[in-house]
């Protein structure tokens, strides 16, 4: 099962600069574990183990352009050909 994962600039140091990588898994949790096996350190930046293995608060993950927080979160099921996009939340601005 091939799933394309789009990597934000801030996490590309873990993927040797690749903007997108392929992974596999039946759920997002399995996909992130698979990515960790080839891109050591990336899972820790996405998943908060101290929060029961949920997505980090300031990381947004989209499955085929739909926010996984409105699906099943880290337990969201995946299918062959899906696209997963990881986006860090951005805050701040001018007064």
From TrEMBL:
Residue ranges annotated as transmembrane are none
Which InterPro entries does its entry note?
Answer: Beta-grasp_dom_sf (IPR012675), Mopterin_synth/thiamin_S_b (IPR016155), Sulfur_Carrier/Prot_Modifier (IPR052045), ThiS/MoaD-like (IPR003749)
Q: Which PANTHER family match?
A: SULFUR CARRIER PROTEIN CYSO, SULFUR CARRIER PROTEIN SLR0821-RELATED
Q: What is this protein called?
A: Molybdopterin synthase sulfur carrier subunit
Naturally occurring in which organism (per UniProt): Streptomyces kanasensis
């Amino acid at each position: 099962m091939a799933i394309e994962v789009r990597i934000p600039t801030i996490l590309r140091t873990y993927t040797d600069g690749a903007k997108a990588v392929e992974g596999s898994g039946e759920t997002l949790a399995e996909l992130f574990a698979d990515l960790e096996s080839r891109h050591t350190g990336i899972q820790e930046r996405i998943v908060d183990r101290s929060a029961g293995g949920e997505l980090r608060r300031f990381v947004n993950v989209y499955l085929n352009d739909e926010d996984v927080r409105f699906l099943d979160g880290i337990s969201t099921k995946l299918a062959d050909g899906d696209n997963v996009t990881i986006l860090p939340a951005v805050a701040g601005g001018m007064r």
